[in-house]
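#lab-general

N.A. 3:47 PM
ok so I finally got the sequence cleaned up, no stray characters, all 741 residues accounted for. can someone with queue access submit it? mine expired

B.Y. 3:52 PM
send it over

N.A. 3:53 PM
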Amino acid sequence: MFKKMKLASKLAIMIAGMLAIILIILLACSVLMSQAAIKKGISGELNSVANGNAEIIEQSFRGFENSVMGIQNYIDWGYQRILQNPGDNVVSDNPDIAEMLRSDLYTSKTLSLAAHDTELFMTETCRSTIKANDSIVAMGVMFEPYQFESDMEAFGFWINKNNVDGQIVPFSSYNDYAEEDSYNYVVENKKSYISQPYDNGNGQMVLAYGIPITHESRLIGVVIGNINLDAFSGVTTSSQNYSSMWATIYDDNSTIVWDSETLDDVGKNMKEFTPNEQEFQQVQSLMTGTSTFHAEKTREDGKKVSCFYSPIQVGDRTWWSMTGLYTSDAQRSIVQTTIWLCVISFVALLVIIFVIISVLRWMLSPVKKVVQAAESIAHGHLDIHIEATTQDEIGDLSRTFQAMAINLKSIIEDVDYLLNEMANGNFNIRTRIEEDYVGDYRGILLAIRRINRSLSQTLSQISEAAVQVSAGSDQVSCGAQSLSQGATEQASSIQQLAATITEISTTVNDNAQMAEAASVNVNQVNNSVAESGQKMKSTLEIMEDARSKATKVSGIIKTIEDIAFQTNILALNAAVEAARAGAAGKGFAVVADEVRNLAGKSSEASKNTTELISGALSAIEEGTQSMQETKQFVDSVVTEAAEITKIFNKISQASEQQAASIQQVTLGIDQISSVVQTNSATAEESAAASEELSSQAQMLKDLISKFKLRDSSETTVNPMDTNPSSENIDYTQAGNDFSKY
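B.Y. 4:20 PM
back already:
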C-alpha cells in the first residue's frame, strides 16, 4: 500500500511519523517533567501544611513547657540562694515577719523566705500561663514529701479557668495527687507524661501533660497541665485545591490524639486505619526518625491516600502532624495537565501535517510531468515536451529529461537506419549523427560497427570456405569409401582372434579352479599336522608332569626310610629300658621287638619301592626323550606343510590373475571389434555426407553472392576518430580498429 502512494503522500507520512515520534518524545518528557514538578509542588504544599500544623500544635504545648521551664529555673535559683544565704531557708521567730511569710495556700503554715517566694512565683506563673494561653485550661504543681519544706509532707495546688483569679484550694495530703497517673508515671519513670484525651467534666476534651521538676538529677516534684484539644482546631484541615484533605495528630505510640474528620477516632491506633501490614511497618519505620516524610497507603475502604508527616516535639517525645488526602485528588491536576498537553500536541501535529502535505503537493507538482514523460519513454514514445519554469532541482530534472528524450530519439532513429540497411544486405553504410553518440551511447555505435565488420568479414570467409569445402568434400568421399572397406576386413579378423582368446580363457579358468581346490586340501592337511603337533606337545607335558610327581614320590619314600630308621632306634632303646626294668619290663620288651620287626619290614618295603620307582623314572625319561624327538619331527612336517600351502596359494592367485587378464583382453578385443564396426558405418555415412556437403557448399556460394560487402582493400582508421581523413576503410584488420559508418 505504501509503495503505491504518491511521493508527496509518502514524504508527508514519513515527516508526520517523525514529527509524531518527536512530539511523543517531547510530550512524554514534558508530561514527566510536569508531573514531577506538580508532584513536587503538591508535596511542598502539603509538607508546608503539615509543618504549619505541627508548629501550631507545638505552640499549644510550648506555652506550658516554657512556664514549667521558668518554675524549674526559679527552683534551681532558689537552691543557689539558700547556699549563698542559709538564713532564707529558716522560719523567722519574729511574729510580724512570720505573719508576712504565712503560706497563701496552707494558711496555718509559716514558710521560710525562700519557700514563700517560691510558692508565690509558682502560683502566679500558673495563673498567668492559664490566662495567656487558651489551649491551657488548668495547671498545677505538686511536690514529693518533704521536698518543698522539710516539715511539710504534702505540697501541691491545682488552678483552672474557674479559680484562676480566686482562692486556690491546695491538696490536703500527698495521696490526693500521688495516685493520679499524670503524677505517678512521672515520679516512677522520671520523664514527662502525656495522657490520652479525656473529658474534663466541662464538656472539653483535654490532655494531661506532666513534666518532672528536678534538682541535681533528683525528682522533687511534678508540674501538670491540661491541654485543651480545641486548640488543635486551628490547624489547616482543608484546601481549595484538594477537597478531600484532612489533618490528624498522632502521639509517639501512633495513637490518634486529634482528627479533623471526627473526634470519634481519638484514642484509636494508626494500625486500625492501615490494613496493609507492609505499609504500616514502613510508616512506623519512618516515624522512628525526626524528619518530615511522605507515604502512600491504602485505607480500610480500599482507597489510596497520600499522607504527609511532620514531627512535633512535645517535651522529650515526638508526635506527628499528618496531612492527608486521596491520591486521586492529589493527581487530579497532574491528569488535567497531561490531558491538555496531549490535546495541544495532537492539534499541533494535525496542523503541521496539513501544512506539510499542502507544501509538498505544491512543490512536487512539476514532478508529475516528469513522471508522465518517463512513462511515455518507458512505453516507447519519445515525442515528449516538458516545460521547466523553475531553476531548482526539479527544473533541472525537467530540462535534463527533455534533452535526454531528444538525444535518445535521434540515436534510436540512426540505429534503426543502420540495422535496416544491414538487414537488407547492405554493409557498406555510415552513421549520420556520430556527434550524438556520447558517453555510454558511444558503446552502441562501436557495437554496431563491430557487428558490421564482423558479419562482413564472416560472410567473405564463408564464401571462400564454401569453395574449399566443395573441393574437399570429393576427397573425403573417396577416402571414406576406402576406410569402410578396410574396416570391414579388420572386423572379420578381430572376430577370429576373439574366439581364440575365449578358448584360452576357459582353459585358464579351469586351471584356476583346480589350483584353488588343491590349495584347500593342502590347508586341511596343514591344519591336521598342526593339530597333531599340539597333541604331541600336550603328551610331552603330561610325561614331564609324571616325571615330576615320581621324583616327589622318591622323596616321600626317603622320608619313610628315615622314619623306619628312627623307629628301629626307638625300639632298640625300648628294649634296653625293658631289660633294665627286669621282669616288669618283659611285656614292654615284646612290644619293642614287634616295633623293631615292623621298622625292618618298612625299611625293606621302602627299598623295594625305591627300586621300582627308579625303574619307572628311567622308563619315563626314555619316553620323554622319544616324545621330544617325535615333536621335532612333527614340527618340521608342519613347517614344510605351511611352505607347500603358501606355494599352492600363490599358484591359485596367479591363475586367478591370468583368468582376469584374459577376460580384460577379451573385453578389449570386443571393444575394438565394436569400434571397427562403428568406423565402417561411419565411413559409409561420411561418404554420403561428403556428397551432401558438396551440394550445400554450392548453395552457400549462391547465398553469399546476394550480399553487398565492404571492399577488403580499404584503408584502416581508428574507430574513435570522428573525422577520418579517407572514406576508404579496411574492415579485415583484427581488433577494434574500424571506422565510423
